[in-house]
């Protein structure tokens, strides 16, 4: 029995999974513009706002970034948080995205590296590789995979 545990443990650690949980937006065609609230204190991933804006634009939605008070003409706004950790270099292991219409949440997505990525080399992928499929699934373009 002990031999099997020694064989299984390395396989489990190497095969750390990515968990993606998306509640897609129902009526994407009605969304023409989204204000993206930059949250520098809630996300230490420098290119996250840029990746989100490009993802919105790729899905046919114009976007503007803001810090602090939301512009009054924003019907839809997007909030995000993310967490980073260290393993020979900093990398993002968790991100949450919420799309709101006024105060009502109309879509959300969570990206999470189970076990902070374990020994998987995929944990060091850039923000685009991790978040682009999540944004596309949020807006109904294609399904983000999880392994």
Oligomer: single chain
Terminal Cα span: 27 Å
Number of domains: 1
Q: What sort of overall outline do the alpha carbons produce when their principal axes are compared?
A: globular
Helix-and-strand structural type: alpha/beta
- Rg, rounded, reads 17 Å
The helix count comes to 3
Describe the structure.
With 147 residues, the protein is α/β, with parallel strands linked by helices. It has one domain (16-138). 24% of the residues lie in helices and 33% in strands. The chain has three helices and six strands, in the order H-E-E-H-E-E-E-E-H. Strands 1-6-5-4-2-3 form a six-stranded mixed beta sheet, with helices on one face. Strand 4 (76-86) and strand 5 (90-101) form a beta hairpin. The radius of gyration is 17 Å and the shape is globular. Mean pLDDT is 83; it is low at 4-14.
């Amino acid at each position: 029995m002990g031999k099997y545990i020694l064989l299984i443990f390395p396989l489990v650690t190497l095969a750390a999974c990515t968990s993606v949980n998306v509640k897609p937006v129902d009526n994407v065609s009605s969304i023409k513009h989204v204000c993206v609230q930059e949250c520098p204190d809630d996300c230490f991933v420098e290119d996250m706002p840029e990746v989100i804006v490009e993802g919105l634009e790729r899905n046919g939605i114009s976007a503007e970034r803001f810090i602090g008070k939301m512009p009054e003409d924003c019907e839809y706004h997007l909030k995000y948080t993310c967490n980073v950790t260290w393993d020979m270099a900093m990398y993002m292991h968790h991100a949450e995205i919420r799309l709101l219409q006024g105060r009502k949440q109309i879509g959300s997505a969570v990206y999470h590296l189970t076990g902070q990525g374990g020994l998987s080399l995929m944990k060091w992928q850039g923000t685009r590789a991790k978040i682009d499929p999540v944004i596309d699934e949020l807006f109904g373009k294609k399904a983000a995979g999880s392994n």
